[in-house]
Amino acid sequence: MLGTRTENVAFRRGKRQGLMMSVTERYLRQDIPCAHKSCQLCPQNADLARRGLPQLSDSGMTLIPDASVVSRYIELLEHSHALTNLVFCQSVVDALDRRNRTRTIRNVRGIAADPRRTSVVFANEVFAQTHVDAILPARDSKAVMRVAAWYKAHLDGVGGQKVVLLTLKASKSTGQYADNQQPGVEVWQFAEFLAEFHPTLIEHFASITESTKDGDMDITEMTPAEYAQARLLAKAQSGYPSHLSPSEIEDGLRSGALVRGKIRILQSGGAMRAESQGNVDRGGAADTPDILIVGRAALNRACTGDTVVVRLLTRAEENAESKDSGIEQSTEETDGEDDNEALAVEQIEAGEETSLDDVRKPVRGVVVGVSERKWRPFVATLQLDEAGGSRHLAVPVDSSVPKIRIHYMDTAVIADKYFVVAIDEWPADSQYPQGHFVRVLGPVGNLDTEVDVILVERQIAVSQSALKFSLASTREMPISTAQCPWSPSTEEVASRRDLRDSLIFSIDPKGSQDIDDAVSMRKTANGGYELGVHIADVSQFVLPGSATDTEAMARGTTVYLADRRFNMIPEILSEQICSLRGLKDRYAVSVIWDLDSEYHATNVWFGRTLIRSACEMYYEQAQALLDGATNVDGLDPKMEASLSESVVELARAMRVLRQCRYEAGALELASTEVKFTFDKDSGAISELVPKSSLEIHRVIEEAMVFANAAVARRIYEQFPSAALLRRHRSPGSERFARLVDAARTKGFEIDCSSNAALADSLRRITEASKSDPDIVFLAKSMATLAMQEAEYFATGDCGSDSYLHYGLALGFYTHFTSPIRRYADIIVHRQLLEAVAASGAELKEVAVVGSQKWVSDTTGKLNERNRQSKRAQRESTELFQSRYVMQRTVGSGQKHLIADGVVAEIRTNGLIVYVPKFGLRGPVHLRDSSGQIKLAFSVLSGNASDSDSFIEGCSEFAADTKQLSIRLPINVPVFQLGSQVLRFSVFDHVRVSLRVLETRRRRPPVYLALVSRASSSASAMRAHKSTLLDKTLRVSAASSSAASSAASKKASDSENILSTGEKSTTGKSSDYYSVLERFGEMSLFETHCDVQTL
Amino acid sequence: MSRQELLSPEGLRVDGRRANELRRISCRASVLNSADGSSYYEQGNTKVLVAVYGPREPRQKSLAHHDQATINVEFNVAPFSTSERRKRSKGDKRLLEVASFVKQTFEGAIQTTVYPRSQIDIYIHLLQHDGGTLETCINAATLALVDAGISMVDYVCACTAGFIDETPVLDLNFVEESSIETPDLTVAVLPRSGNIALLQMESRLHSSKLEGVLELATEGCKHIHKKLDEAVLAAAGELAKKLS
Q1: Min distance B4 CA to chain A CA atoms (Å)
Q2: How far apart are CA A549 and CA A554, in angstroms?
Q3: What pLDDT, in 10s, does the model give residues B195-228?
């Protein structure tokens, strides 16, 4: 059966060494069928038919395209159904394969599987009669020629069909095929062939010729060995420069030639594209700006979070660099769908990355060494190696992390799943870091998996189940069951100040389980007041060094996600024994002030107490009391009167305290928070509401701030070097540039020289835009974004001048009031109690909470935990927002979810719009990655259904920090816009349609599509306009076809309608032309009517 | 054909074979003079040299069994066996695994009780590697053992079969073998009785498909048996020529 054996030589890249020759054997056989329908000579043709493969037909000629045609004009071959009876030689397919042209091969196979095309792939390489030895020069063209000759000879017996060899390399009788021309075979230049037989395809041919002119589409330009060599060279060039040695780095740092800092990568892009950039924060003083590192080569294998050593670029180098950057293109082979999807995701995300702030020329540098890697386990999804190998790319969920090469055999198990990967190393010659698979998290899109992803990505835990408390810590817990509830021990009752007779109450969100603060307020006999803030005494139960304590410290904080939370301390403490429940005796740590009638504190007492909360109120109830309501829902009527009095007194006091703080310069800031309510049965999100803010919220907040500040002073007195405080550094005024610019467009001046000045400016905006709370909110959140995060610190770490809390305008501040959910508060409690115990007596600084080093180390960890938990919270909110939008759009079959929004920021390719209704921000893309302007047609029509079609021919896209403008094409009616140039500036109202991008690999991001410019306030106006527009269009459409008399009647009819709609039109006329003329001038007319309504 | 196309729609494999075709086998016994038995075996581009010593006195007394012979198998891969030179250490687990498979296979086939207190050494060298290591090792070892005149129950013939695109495929070469989706079943049978001496598989295969793959591999074994028989006859013929 098997005839002679031959060997096939190919080149490939070796794992270690450069170019390898790989030799595979090949068996030459006699039984390769010609696959011609009416051929009687080949019995194997029946086999092909059985396999469902098409066969060559009798009609027309047999076309044999060579490698140059197939590789360059595959698109033409694929789409031109007129071209039938194609014979693709296996040698051509092999040649494509050697150049990694998998997509082209797929197309070839597609043609050969289509019965209408009657085309086949002919295995000439393994057919003894057509095989050409590999060592011959120009063997590929010889092989194709032999196939043609064989077919000619073979088909002679069948019907004597013409056999045509198509090539780019020859005209009829010259060129490549001239010297091995076989009798009977016609060699045609592809273009000439098309011109002769298929003139309709010439245009398509020309366009492909144009688009592939300088590309390397034609594989015959290079021999396989040259190609492999070239690729190898390209790889070597794309290799990264090696890092400097430790001693070189040491010298460089000492001489100041190099800088060390932490790198933060903004966008790695799907494939670590050239535009990746990172910022190196040098740490320390604010006067050293971040260093910008642009490009994959300059980043030199640094990953986000790494401590890197950077060499700064000189101005000249910088210029050279920016010229070079065009050349440095990724040569990575790309594969169809995956890339498209990645690109789509990238486009969505790109909106968030390319901030205009970077227009300011920053210091640039290149990474020359990495001194510390911050490789954590990353959550990723799989991008399959299409070549069928076992080395795949893991695409991390975090877009700042490059793809990771992993080796994994059983891809079916991890496809479409989130899994954890770890990076092992990143050798200089490898485009991607090398890593390994760790474990599977679960399928993409599953809610629990998505939550796990957040937990792992934020390094909170390895999974949700890992957040259960250990047996050891459970054993430490006091016992409290329904039958035998926990009660205070007699010794404790004796040693604590007993406040069970005082009226103490708590105000929390509805349904709260972990109540960690309660307040009391009463008038004293001398005309003053006694204000008490009582905080759950967690430190009583969580002893230093216990298993619970260790665990709580590791967690740092309770993590609140949109639909669940992960407690810092076991539920039995957080929800029962520590929680200050109503009518239960509970341990507390209290701060009690004596206030005079002007609310000045005359005395303050700290200490452990025993309290019994009279009532657990929720905010709405308390607010009702404050508003003077009676018979408030859910309150004990007997208590109501006294509670009401207390709440009112408390609010009065807090208003005064608050005012003091404002005068000192405290800021009122805003943050986007939304609440999700869930449908109990289906678990679906039933509603999404922004968190409301009542006065009572601020009252409680103020009381807590007051307590925190008092405690901060107290512990600082006791531990001048080890007190755990919280500070908020004052930001430099340049950070507010964006806010200042944005406010200016609305006519506000913002002074950000100090917190007091800033607070004042913000207040002015608040007052001036009362009707537009969204703008106020945005301005505040922009101010918040500009500021640095508040952080914990040990007082010994810095001078007393930097203890300031900028936002609250307090000299000393700490966290004391939420020990159930924050570990910092537990430390503060311990410090406070230590201080109280030691007061009067000599301080023995033995306790660990008094050690500066320990506190300093711990605050570092706590800050990190806080940051991560905040991000987790934000991500989970985003997750649910995305699910909500998905539910409302895809799930319900409804196409559009329209909402009003405000432009929050302007980016190089679009806008960031804030949608207050759902508390989300999202990108609106007005220009895609290729620079095409995408302006929805709905901007003109006002119909949401038009938001998917785009206006063609927009030009003059211009964006700066203040304004983005697009010029509409002349032929577009712009009645309602009033001008041909469309402008967007910050704080403009827009209407947007919310969508989610469906991806296989990631949590679908929410993005917005612009529906129209004006918002609800102008919607009535717009509705009118759009009917007007509709009519105009209808009239002009009708008039062009109808007979003039009928049309003129119609026109006058419609004019009547118009006139009733708009009284200010010029003189009535039944003349059809004058009507049209007026329509033509509609833009003017519209402007006019704008003026009227305004 | 192309890399991802292990079996083309036309039913041809990468090297031009159809699904049920073996690679070309050529083998010769008595290729080394110093060994008691030896063989050189080629299956496609996989080339193996085997030397058998014994039965002889065991190297270590502790290895000697009073009632049967000890079989010792050493398997080595030449550093030049693949185009990328690679040296393997003695303790390479993959080498040890192959050696132990071969050993287990022949413990059932060699009549060890005929040679008590003795040792039979089988040294296998893989000279060129192109897939199907285990099958070639077993086939070559059979030939060498027959050449050494060691009593065996029967020939041991091994063959691999895989499963590509819903089709059982015989005798995988290196390219086919290294695709992870391809299950790779090696069967060693005693052709006369049809007993299976070794059944080993890598990757996964649905149990309902196993029968077809196994059948194909067994069919291959029968063909290999013929080839080995011819080689033995040829060696015997040469020996007879020398004697006469």
Answers
A1: 6
A2: 9
A3: 999 999 988 888 888 999 999 999 999 999 999 9
Structure token digits, residue A93: 């397919």
Average pLDDT, chain A: 76
- From the candidates A22, A25, A94, A99, which should be mutated to test the interface with B, based on the most B CB atoms within 10 A? A25
User: A924 - beta bridge partners?
Assistant: A911, A1008
DSSP tag of A359: G
> pLDDT-based confidence at A895, cuts 50/70/90?
low
Q: Tell how many helices (H) and how many strands (E) occur in chain A.
A: 31, 37
Phi, psi of A381 (to 5 degrees): -120, 170
The size of the A-B interface in CB pairs under 8 A is 91
Only one residue has tokens 């601020």, namely A698
Which of chain B's residues have a Cβ under 8 Å away from the Cβ of A105?
2, 5
Q: How far apart are CA A86 and CA A200, in angstroms?
A: 18
Judge: A126–B12 Cβ closer than 8 Å, yes or no: yes
Of A21, A27, A388, the CB nearest to B15: A27
Residue B22 CA: distances (Å) to CA of A562, B154, B217: 62, 22, 10
CA distance to A251, A309, A314, A427, per residue, from A248 (Å)? 5, 11, 20, 20
Report the SS3 class of residue A740: helix
Q: Report angle CA B150, B154, B156 to the nearest 5 degrees.
A: 95
Distance of alpha carbon A687 from alpha carbon A929, whole angstroms: 35
Question: What residues of A are in contact with residue B178 (Cβ under 8 Å)?
Answer: 389
Comparing alpha-carbon positions, the chain A residue that sits nearest to B128 is A23
Q: What is d(CA A854, CA A846) in angstroms, rounded to the nearest whole number?
A: 12
Reference A1009, options A965, A940, A950; nearest CA is: A950
What was the ipTM of the complex prediction?
0.90
What are the tens digits of pLDDT across the range A65-104? 988 889 888 888 887 778 888 999 988 988 888 777 777 8
Q: What's the rounded Cα separation, in Å, for the pair A554 and A862?
A: 9
Nearest CA of chain A to the CA of B138: how many Å?
A: 22
Per CB-CB distance under 8 Å, the chain A contacts of B17 are: 2, 27
Residue reference for tokens 């990238």: A346
Nearest to A2 among B2, B21, B83 (CB): B21
Measured in angstroms, the CA of A90 and the nearest CA of chain B are apart by 7
Minimal Cβ distance to A53: which of B3, B9, B174: B9
Residue A121, SS3 per DSSP = strand
The predicted-structure confidence for A840-877, as pLDDT tens digits, reads as follows: 555 555 566 777 888 888 898 899 899 899 889 888 88
Determine contact: B237 vs chain A, CB below 8 A: no
CB A370 within 8 A of CB A433: no
Cβ contact A154:A32 at 8 Å = no
Residue A330 Rama label (left phi>0; alpha psi -120 to 50; beta): beta
Q: Chain B contact for A387, CB < 8 A?
A: yes
Cα dihedral A247→A250→A252→A254 (10° resolution): -140
Beta carbons of A300 and A278 less than 8 angstroms apart: no
Residues of A with Cβ-Cβ distance to B14 under 8 angstroms:
24
pTM of the model: 0.61
Check if the beta carbon of residue B81 is closer than 8 Å to that of residue B127.
Answer: yes
Q: What is the token pair recorded at B15? A: 């090297």
Tokens of B244: 């006469």
Q: Looking at the partner chain, which of A2, A15, A123 has a beta carbon nearest the beta carbon of B10?
A: A123
The answer to whether B195 faces chain A, any CB pair under 8 Å, is no
Chain B residues within 8 A of A389 when measuring between CB atoms: 178, 180
- Whether residue A171 is predicted with pLDDT greater than 60 in this model: the reply is no
A643 closest CA partner among A534, A517, A503: A503
- Per-residue pLDDT, averaged over A500-516, amounts to 88
Dihedrals phi, psi of A852, to nearest 5 degrees = -60, -40
